[in-house]
Design brief:
Layout lengths: L5 E2 H8 L3 H9 L6 E3 L2 E4 L1 H15 L4 H14 L1 H47 L1
Antiparallel strand pairs: 1-3, 2-3
């Protein structure tokens, strides 16, 4: 095995994903490893794509969005991909802001309710 390629097992370990996850990413064509017999090997391109996939998942993007975004680079080039990224990021930032607002409301409501119940417990003691 050469140093510039990772085996299936090494790829799972490097990105802390399960074999099932890695196989699924291949199945939905996010990754296309080199195959030698039944073995799979991941070169620089696949490792770079995996970094982008993992980053996209961290930010809450759907796998299909990530797949479409990766295809833009192949079909239209870097500038088109960068513009698509800005558009995707804008949409996701809006979604995350809405989720944060919902969490803040739930946090405040739970805090208030907890304080009321604790106060009632003290009064009954």
């Amino acid at each position: 095995m050469t140093e510039d390629r990772l085996s299936f097992k090494e790829m799972c370990a490097a990105f802390e994903v399960t074999p099932r996850t890695l196989r699924y990413y291949e199945y939905i064509e996010l990754l296309q490893p080199d195959r030698e017999g039944r073995s799979r090997f991941y070169g620089a391109r696949e490792r770079a794509r995996m970094k982008l996939i993992m980053r996209g998942r961290k930010f809450g993007f759907q796998l299909e969005e990530i797949r479409q975004w990766l295809l833009i680079y192949e079909d239209e080039g870097t500038e088109a991909q960068m513009q698509a990224w800005v558009d995707m990021a804008d949409r996701q930032l809006k979604e995350l802001a809405e989720q944060r607002e919902q969490l803040n409301e739930a946090f405040a409501e739970l805090t208030d309710l907890r304080q009321k119940v604790a106060k009632e417990l003290k009064a009954n003691a």
